[in-house]
Amino acid sequence: MSVAFRRESDEEHKEPRFELPLPPGPNLVTARGLAAIETRVAELEARVQQPLDEDALAAAQRELRYWRTRQATAQLMPEPDGEEAAFGARVTFRLNGQVKTVEIVGDDEADPHNGVIAFSAPLARALLGAAPGDTADFAGKADAIELLEVGPRGA
Predict the structure, then answer these.
(1) Alpha-carbon span 30 to 32, nearest angstrom
(2) Long-range CB contacts (< 8 A, 24+ apart) of 134-138?
(3) Helix axes 54-73, 31-48, angle to 10 degrees
(4) Distance CA 119, CA 44 (A)
(5) Which tens digit of pLDDT belongs to each residue from 31-75?
(6) Are strands 74-76 and 89-95 parallel, antiparallel or unpaired?
């Protein structure tokens, strides 16, 4: 039989499994975000000890590598002082005539649908450093955002 028609194993025909992509930049976290990372690592460490099929074990190990990396690179940020929009703060602002409130957190803790955005998001970058009464450019528009209030992160 020709070598061209031999197959050593089924592995060579499977989709390659790449590592989970890490967000670019520093891994800034709130205290709550760091606790969530630690909890996730503990859950995954327990999971890989369970009897799993080969694919489930590989997936759990892959996810565990991601979270261990995030844990090892986490940079705990200090609590914001509340005087200006900063990492870990709750910020209320007016954009396009609507008043909105967001919390600025790390990449892994972000949940935009619930008003929790990553510090790397364009909206957060526009808000960071602004104090109540300040305006900020956003989406190519000058003074598109009016900062109304800055406070501690919600519970």
Answers:
(1) 5
(2) 138/95
(3) 150
(4) 26
(5) 999 999 999 999 999 999 999 899 999 999 999 999 999 999 999
(6) unpaired
